[in-house]
Design a protein that fits this description.
The complex is a heterodimer of chains A (189) and B (430).
Chain A lengths: L1 H18 L13 H16 L2 H4 L8 E5 L3 E3 L6 H17 L2 H4 L2 E3 L3 H10 L6 H4 L5 E14 L2 E14 L5 E14 L5
Helix pairs in contact in A: 2-4
Chain B lengths: L1 H22 L7 H7 L4 H12 L7 H15 L2 H15 L9 H6 L11 H17 L3 H18 L4 E3 L9 H14 L5 H10 L4 H8 L5 E7 L4 E5 L5 E5 L8 E5 L3 E5 L3 E2 H7 L6 H24 L3 H19 L14 E7 L5 E7 L6 E7 L8 E7 L8 H4 L28
Parallel strand pairs in B: 2-11
Antiparallel strand pairs in B: 2-8, 3-4, 5-6, 5-9, 7-8, 9-10
Helix pairs in contact in B: 1-14, 2-3, 3-4, 4-5, 4-7, 5-7, 7-8, 7-9, 8-9, 9-10, 13-14
Classes of the chains: A alpha/beta (189), B alpha+beta (430).
Chain lengths: 189, 430
Amino acid sequence: MAIPMKSLMFMILTLGVMGCAMPTHPRTPFLRSVDLVDMTNNLSESFAHDEIINSRTSDDSPWVISLNDVVNNTQQIIPESERWLYVARLRSRLAQSDCSARHNMIWVVPPEGIQRIDDENTGSSSLAEQRLTPTHLLTGEFVALTNTSHTGRSDTYVCDYQLVDLQSGLIVWEDAWEVKRYASGLTYD
Amino acid sequence: MFRSTFNLACTAVGCVLIFALSGCQTGAQYNPARDAYYDYDFAQSCTILREEIMGSDDEQVILNNLRLGMAALAEGDWEQADRALNHSFHWLSTPGLNDDRNTAAVLTHEGVRIWKGEPFEQALGYHYVATLHAINNDWENARAAAANSIMRLSDFQEGPQSYSNNNPATNFTLGLLMQAIASDHASLADSTPLYEAALKNDTELRSIIDALRQRRYNTILLLDFGKGPSKKSFGPDNAHAEFINQSNQQHAARITINKQQSIRALPVCNVNELADEYTWNRFEEIRQTKSAIGQTLFLSGAILAGASDDDSTLWAGVGMMLAGLFSRATSSADLRYLDYAPQLIYLIPLELDQISDLSAHIEHVPNATIQLPAITPGTTDQPRVIYLRLYHHAGPQPAWLTTHNMNHETQGNDHTMTRVSENTPPGDSP
């Protein structure tokens, strides 16, 4: 008689544990933090080794570079703060190296950030008035080719960055970083 | 001796029956939050749901975050809506979410699976993410979310496909229009194929689609009305489930501007029709089989136990009865559904030339009116998007819904307007 009772208790325990399982870590077809790091590391190297940029010396007239957040043309939600992060990390990688000093490049705060700094600034003059006029703009566009079916989804991302001469419209530097993310499993279940 | 064993066996059957029936309830939950939502008390609904969620990602993570996001949208609490809807977006976009739970769902009950909803509910979930970003004029993310709503319904149809604006093969007109509007304002892609697909779906929407295509608007009203279909179980052991219409209306919305100009708009989405087309019953055959096996086991066990004259046969019969009871109790359908969904969704472009008093009313439906005093329009490039939630209310509408005087700028159903309870003593209102 003891055996069925033990079996019953075991069954109840098993079912209870199965019923209370937590969700597994999600598998995502979206860009992740490792992609941000890898992308900006690679592109900062590309930028630093570019022929046109390397031809500049510290005696050349400075390039005053402003930033735009990346354009999100993917099927992923990228909050505004993250869209800025994708260019901000590239800039900070370049600022940490001596690339900017060697090639006489100056980075200025984008217009979106000026007001925030002005709000903190107790001085008499506005930073917006003193800000150097940019000669170049660093920006990016993320595009994704999304393939979906009921059995899974893949997103191939092309993350394209450009440095644009604001006077001529010339693209001074451009490079792209690509990655494909695939997640299998029923999409709607 | 045999008598005491028989009593013990009966007790065991009773205990397991209680356990099975209580532990495997998969029906709709959180009624207080839903009741508050349908009583126009969106803030209270948010509060209850926030407490229920409290950082736990359990089997209800998508459903509760969608509910919270929709209630927060109606309340005009964008930060709360942002957290909840973006959280649900990532879960909704994860394929194979329940791959490791299907076995448990077959052996026990479907409630162990993470609720992802029917394809139409998922498309609606994405639509509300798009709505949130449209309200914030974040058109890039609005486009992304709307694109996902179309993809989800396309996935449900046959065949793999590459997704772009040029192959919008779906009858989800709302998703097409949301993506078209967002693509236009984000300047990302040609929205013409999307508008054409929407027009092909429903030619009666021509005036709305023309206004959108020609950018003859600076304000967009997204108006949800009524209660969407509910999920009910029926049949032996409640093993069958289907969506039942709670209301079945096709009335137009009428928008009055400054008590002069009147605009009539047809709904761009009827959720009842979506539910008819985009549902599936993956586990229904399994549930029916479990129910049939359970009935057979229970009857066979009862016969065996009744005819037994020794302990071992009795216990074998009791065991079969227990297994049968358990199988039957766990064969009921999962009745979770997106209970905050509306029946009709209107998308109404408006061209306001000044700060205006608006009135929105659903034709032929009493108590389905909202007054929006002193609405500041957006611009052609950055239109203002206003989300509203209405339904047929049995009692009188709350005063804040129909007031003609504003206390603050109105951003949603009830974002910053002051609501004063009838029981509030004078002087206590904020």
